Amino acid sequence: MTDHQLAAELATRAGELLLGVRAELAEASAQERKDAGDKRSHDFLMAELAAARPQDAVLSEEGVDDPARLRAHRVWIVDPLDGTREFSEPGRDDWAVHVALWEDGELVAGAVALPAQHITLATPATPAVPPAPQQLRVVVSRTRPPAVALAVRDALDGVLVEMGSAGAKVASVVQGRSDVYVHAGGQYEWDSAAPVAVARAAGLHTSRIDGSPLRYNQSGAKLPDLIVCRPEHAEAVLAVTAVG
């Protein structure tokens, strides 16, 4: 099985597990669903990666960060449940599972499962991005849209599209449901590694908000900002975000 196939299979199977957790704990509290989802998906992914790629390092949101990964040639970067809040809310489908592989400085494989949508987007090939509408759509969080995203919306005469997890937001650009995702104010590598790998496979622009490259498997695992957008919008978006 190739790394691409493994990423897609694990993200999909973890998503199926999470749908089961959601159904099993339908009458439980939101916090119980969040905790169970995070733990069970993390445990599943750790066990499967240990079996399939025992020599590789792993960086998971729910695991202890082992500094040995900084010396490794291959590191799986995973978010077992991206969008725990949305997962905990019955009926929401804007949450995801992220599985990505970093190798010698680059993201080389990745998959974003959207379990409640019954979709997995994965490298090396993704569906063609649908044509863009006339008015640019900027995808943002439901509760805390960053000022930089609002600035992009205003400068480019766009509209906001509200959505939950980072993976769902990036997937929405790949799916043609939005055109620009701009985030600033704090994220970690597991929030964007798999989505960025998938976005690149779809031919989208990815960068920091100042236009510099996104770098993974770094000390501390913080990667506070990013842009994912259609390539034809990149110059105009960066003209707003790179100021200062």
TrEMBL record:
Keyword line: Hydrolase, Magnesium, Metal-binding
Q: Pfam families annotated for this entry?
A: Inositol_P
The record's GO molecular-function terms, alphabetically, read: 3'(2'),5'-bisphosphate nucleotidase activity
Give the reaction(s) catalysed: adenosine 3',5'-bisphosphate + H2O = AMP + phosphate
**Does the keyword section mention Glycosyltransferase?**
no
InterPro entries under this entry?
CysQ/Inositol_MonoPase (IPR050725), Inositol_monoP_metal-BS (IPR020583), Inositol_monophosphatase-like (IPR000760)
The organism is [Mycobacterium] wendilense
Protein name (record): 3'(2'),5-bisphosphonucleoside 3'(2')-phosphohydrolase
Q: Tell me the superkingdom of the source.
A: Bacteria
Does the record bear Plastid in its keywords? no
